[in-house]
Amino acid sequence: MVRAQPLARLLLLCLTHLSPPGACDVAGGAGSVNSLPAAGSARLAPSFDAATPKNVTALVGKSAYLSCRVRNLGNRTVSWIRHRDLHILTVGGYTYTSDQRFQASHSPHTDDWTLQIKWAQQRDAGVYECQVSTQPVRSFFVTLHVVDCDEIYQRMFSDAVPSARILGGPDLHVDMGSTINLTCLIQFSPEPPAYVFWYHEDEVSGRKVISYDSARGGVSVVTEKGAATTSYLLVQDAAPADSGRYSCAPSNADLASVRVHVLNGERPAAMQTGSAGLSDSSRAIALLLVASLLHARLRSALLAS
Question: DSSP label at 240?
Answer without folding.
Answer: G
